[in-house]
């Protein structure tokens, strides 16, 4: 991680370490310290106050509730609180440092990235990237398949609704595992590339084994960072590709287009979960093309 990221202004790691090393005596307690106020939701300009109240590697309850909305059941928590490794401010040019840090500490957990109008998550297992999530509509799995020409716009809406309601595994009701895994990998590249372009944002590393309710892949963070940096540099130099369909060079081409109509399934969530439980370990549909 770069020296700049480890300054007191850009990171809370030092503050966390001070809190951990402080003696647990009555004299060490500052009775005149102001109370901790309710914390603002993620994505607001006042997010600094949220980050600067992190102590003893725990996120306070109010902030934990906000992160719960973003992470759902994908990350373990204790009484609504998440264990963190580091947090701070950054700009997109430091994305490579964040990914290198995750790889260096062999992270199993999540990197939450927040800017004023979007929230994104990159998930790791033992230092490798395994999945991603985003509040940006065009970074949903169904929309990525539509942008690649794999499904129609109407079909992508069905897939987006299914993912939002039940998670990525729900898309196996309509897709083959090959199609879904391609979308999962594509989203990692898309999210990482978007993070490289952030002018001002905040990050939180959360520790714990992810449970993504979705098939996972395994990507080298350094390769993803290098590609994101290339796109960032090309954009600054004005030499980037004008084709709206971007294809990471190390990814396979999109899977065959699905021509059939993907209609919403009108069943209760309980029934759908039972169906998904039975098919989650199998490829329910034959490959097309």
Order of helices and strands: HHHEHEEEHHHEHH
**Uncertain stretches of 5 or more adjacent residues:** 1-58
Strand order of the largest sheet: 1-5-2-3-4
SSE-based structural type: alpha+beta
Molecular shape = globular
What amount of the residues lies in strands? Answer: 5-15%
Give the helix proportion (percent range): 25-40%
* Total of domains: 1
Count of alpha and pi helical runs = 9
What is the rounded Rg?
20 Å
Distance between the termini: 45 Å
What characterizes the major β-sheet? 5 strands, antiparallel
**Beta strand count:** 5
Could you tell me the mean pLDDT? 74
3D structure, described in words:
This protein is of the alpha+beta class and 289 residues long. The chain has one domain (4-25, 35-279). It is built from nine helices and five strands. The protein has helices at residues 13-21, 47-51, 61-71, 95-104, 141-147, 153-166, 177-196, 221-237, 269-279; strands at residues 84-90, 109-115, 118-125, 128-134, 201-207. Strands 1-5-2-3-4 form a five-stranded antiparallel β-sheet. A hairpin with a 2-residue loop joins strand 2 (109-115) and strand 3. Helix 5 (141-147) crosses helix 7. The longest helix has 20 residues, at 177-196. The relative contact order is 0.15. The model is unreliable at 1-58 (pLDDT under 50).
């Amino acid at each position: 991680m770069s020296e700049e990221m480890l300054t007191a202004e850009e990171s809370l790691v030092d503050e966390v370490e001070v809190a951990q090393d402080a003696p647990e005596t009555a004299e060490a307690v500052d009775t005149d310290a102001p109370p901790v106020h309710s914390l603002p939701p993620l994505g607001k300009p006042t997010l600094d106050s949220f980050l600067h109240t992190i102590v003893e590697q725990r996120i306070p309850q109010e902030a934990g509730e906000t992160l719960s909305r973003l992470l759902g059941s994908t990350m373990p928590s204790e009484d609504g609180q998440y264990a963190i490794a580091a947090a701070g401010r950054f700009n997109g040019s430091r994305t490579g440092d964040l990914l290198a840090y995750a790889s260096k500490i062999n992270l199993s957990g999540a990197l939450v990235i927040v800017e004023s109008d979007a929230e994104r998550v990159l998930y790791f297992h033992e230092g490798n990237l395994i999945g991603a999530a985003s509040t940006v509509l065009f970074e949903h799995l169904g929309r990525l398949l539509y942008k690649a020409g794999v499904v129609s716009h109407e079909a992508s809406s069905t897939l987006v609704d299914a993912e939002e309601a039940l998670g990525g595994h729900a898309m196996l009701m309509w897709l083959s595992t090959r199609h879904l895994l391609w979308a999962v990998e594509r989203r990692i590249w898309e999210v990482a590339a978007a993070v490289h372009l952030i002018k001002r944002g905040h990050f939180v590393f959360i520790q714990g084994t992810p449970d993504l309710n979705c098939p996972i892949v395994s990507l080298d963070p350094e390769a993803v960072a290098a590609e994101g940096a290339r796109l960032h540099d090309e954009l600054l130099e004005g030499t980037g590709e004008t084709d709206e369909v971007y294809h990471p060079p190390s990814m396979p081409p999109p899977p065959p287009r699905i021509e059939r109509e993907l209609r919403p399934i009108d069943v209760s969530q309980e029934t759908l979960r039972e169906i998904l439980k039975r098919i989650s370990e199998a490829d329910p549909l034959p490959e097309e093309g």
